[in-house]
Amino acid sequence: MGALDFARYVRPGDLVAWGQCGAEPCTLTRALVEQRHAVGGRFSVFVGTQWSDTLQAAHADAIDFVAYTGGGQNRALAQAGVLDILPSHYSQFEQLIDVDVLLVQVAAADEHGHYSLSIAHEYLLPFLDHARVVIAEVNAQAPWTHGSRPLRADDFDVLFHTNRKPLESARAAPGEIETRIAQHAAAFIEDGATLQFGLGAMPEAILATLADRRDLGVHSGMFSDAAADLQTRGVITNARKRLDRNVSVAGVLMGSERVYRFAHRNAALQMRGTAYTHDIGVLSRIDRFVAINSALEVDLTGQVNAEAVNGRYVGAVGGGVDFLRGAAKSRGGVPIVALSARGREGSRIVAQLHGPVSTPRVDAGVIVTEFGAADLRGLTLARRVRRMIDIAPPEQRAELEAQAHTHTLMKR
To answer: Per residue of the chain (412 residues), what is the pLDDT tens digit?
Structure first.
C-alpha cells in the first residue's frame, strides 16, 4: 500500500464511502485511516454496518464518521460520541448522499474482462456513477456475482490487487424464543411467497421453519446463509415470481463463506442496486410479497422503534418502511415485524415508545412475538391495543392495560 498515496485522491472536506459488512475493502480502508493526517484537513466517511475494527474513536482526530446505522462495530463509535447518524430510508440514499471518493472491493475480471462488485451492489452503484474518484481493491478471493451491468477497468481510477478472505459474520443460532416466534410468523408464509428478510437470529429462525414450503422466492436487501441453504435444497426456486422469474434478487450478501460460495458465478442470484431492491413500484408488482423485519420495541398501536434503546443508537431506519409498504401494496402480501416480547429492560411491547418512531402505525401490519401474532391491518386503535396486549409478556399485560388509555388515545 506504500504506492497508494491517498493524499492524491482525498481532499479536505471530501466524503469517502465504501461497502458494508463483508464488502469492506479492508486493505484500502486501513491504509486510508493510517494516512488520514496526510490529507491535510478533515474529511468524512459514510459507512454502513461495519464488521471490521478499522474505524476507531481515536481516528476522529481527522475523520468525521457518518452512518445510517448504529449496528455492528458502529456501536463503539456511537458510545464514544463520534458517530453522526443519517436517519434515512434505504431507498433515499442515492438522493441524499453525495460521495466524492468511493472505495470498493471487486472480484477479479472474468474471461470477458468484466469485474464484479461482488458482495455488495446496493447503494454502491449510484456512488460508482457519481464519485469523483473510484479506487478498487481487486480481491482474488471475493465472489464474482451477477449484477445489473458489467464493469470494466475504465470504471475505476485505481485498481489495487489483493488476495485475502472477505470479512464474515458467524451464523446466528436461533434459540427457543426465536423458534417460537418463527413458528408464528411462518403461518403467514404460503407456497409461492416471495420473501424479504433482515440479518440476525430472528430471520434465520424464520427461514429455517420453511423447509416444507414450495417455490418460495427472494427479493431482499440482503441474502444470507439460510437463504442459500433453502435455495440449494430447492425450497427457494423463484418459479412463481412475475418479476425476475427463477432468480433471487438481493443487494448485499451478509453471512459466512457459505453464502459467498453459493453466490460465486451463480446466475440464479442477481445482485441489484437499492433503486431496484427497495423501490415500492417494483415491490408492489411482486405477488405474495412477505416482508420480515425486526424491531427494538413496538407500542400498543403498532408504532415501531428500530433505532435506539436507553438513549443509545443501535439500529437503523434502514429498509424497514420501504419493504413494509411494498408488502402492503403487494397482492397477497404480508408486512411482518418480529421481535421477542421480553428484553433486558422488561416488556418490548410498550404503551409508549422509549425511542423514535422508525415505522409509523399506519404502516403496521402483523406484529409477531413468542406469544402469538397480532394482525393490525384494518383495526381501530382500541382493537389494536387489545391484540397487542395479547402478545405481550403475560406478567406485563395488566400494567399495559392500565396504561393504554393514557398513551394510545383510545376511548375509555
So the answer is: 457 999 999 999 999 999 999 999 999 999 999 999 999 999 999 999 999 999 999 999 999 999 999 999 999 999 999 999 999 999 999 899 999 999 999 999 999 999 999 999 999 999 999 999 999 999 999 999 999 888 999 999 999 999 999 999 987 778 899 999 999 999 999 999 999 998 878 888 999 999 999 999 999 999 999 999 999 999 999 999 999 999 999 999 999 999 999 999 999 999 999 999 999 999 999 999 999 999 999 999 999 999 999 889 999 999 999 999 999 999 999 999 999 999 988 999 999 999 999 999 999 999 999 999 999 999 999 999 999 999 999 999 999 999 997 766 555 5
What the chain holds in terms of domains, given with CATH numbers, is: 6-162 (3.40.1080.10), 176-407 (3.40.1080.20)
Whole-angstrom distance, CA of residue 376 vs CA of residue 373: 9
Distance (Å, whole) CA 367 – CA 341: 10
Other C-beta atoms within 10 Å of 346: how many?
A: 14
Cβ contact 217:248 at 8 Å: yes
Residue 283 host element (H or E): helix 280-283
